[in-house]
Design a protein that fits this description.
Number of domains: 2
Strand content: 15-25%
Mean pLDDT: 90
Largest sheet: 8 strands, mixed
Order of helices and strands: HHHHEEHHEEEHEHEEHEHEH
CATH superfamily of the largest domain: Zn peptidases
Number of strands: 10
Radius of gyration: 23 Å
CATH architecture of the largest domain: 3-Layer(aba) Sandwich
CATH class of the largest domain: Alpha Beta
Distance between the termini: 23 Å
Low-confidence stretches: 23-46
Length: 358
Amino acid sequence: MKIKRKQFLLRVILSIWLFLLAVQVSCNIPTIRNPRDWVQMVQYSIHLPVDQKVLQQSSPQQWLDWIEKLSGEKPVMIEGQETFLRSRYSYAMFLDYPEAQAMPYLVEQVLQYVKPEQIEIDPYTYTDAEKSYTWQNLIVRLPGKLVPEEKILLTAHFDSIVVREGNALVLAPGADDNASGTAVLLEALRLLSDESFEKTIEIVFFSGEEINLQGSRAYLQDHDFQNIKGVINVDMIGYDSDNDGCVEIHAGTDPESQQIALLLQTTITNYQLQLQPEMLYENATNRSDHASFWAQQIPAILVSENFFDQQGSGVCPTNDPNPYYHQTGDTVANINSHYGHQISQAVILTIVQLAVPY
């Protein structure tokens, strides 16, 4: 099929070249004399379809590498200095603890793929019982080509926490919760930043999720959300101890949210990904940033591992919660890279369809 396509393209290019040559000769315009020059020019413009790019140019190890760095398993470079990200607790990150520098790390990674004017470091005020703090979200925009005012959001929280043990200011690795979701955003940016879409894609890294969804609430207070057409929020997708591939899709009761969930389910089927989607409607959870969008009647879904107790469509009769949830043991040692990467691909492929390749 590929050979026939190339032969067809060559015939078309040669026909165009001969026509232009005749025009150029008659009008005394300088000519491109070698048809191979046209072939070379056209070859530069032929790209792998974006869905195949997502499937072929991402790997479980690439996805896991982001998690290893975000959770302190591997060192990272920030402004030329090597350090570890031992904690992503919001208090630690924005009080400038030396091993909690996830925000500058993310900014440096994002700037490898987009121009500075495409990112927004979005500060907001969080006030606890004692004082006020300035925390930050990170927003990356891939402007749409046809209807840029319409936005599709891919979101995850990048903060972490530990409770009932240790000191979150010093050690809160959060490999599953939620370096696993943050890695999906970084992979999406790596794969999609040089592609074109009809609608604008916003990739949003929220802080403060572990403190009552502070980041997503602040985002909606600071930004016009009237033209948000859909949100996919990714939170905890790395744990699958029984290897059953069960993935929860929390759609709630809104019909438009359910349409996004069904698109994700169909994507899993059509691309033969090794996952079992569990659809959750009335029993969907509100325990992540998608709930902030639901509160504003914005279509949104949560994609998560088989964590919650709620019974959905009956695909996964029992749940498989991560026993290291909100503990210092939430490390890459307990991440199922094949499973999480399959979810990552499903989510990114669904974002591609929602934003519509241009």
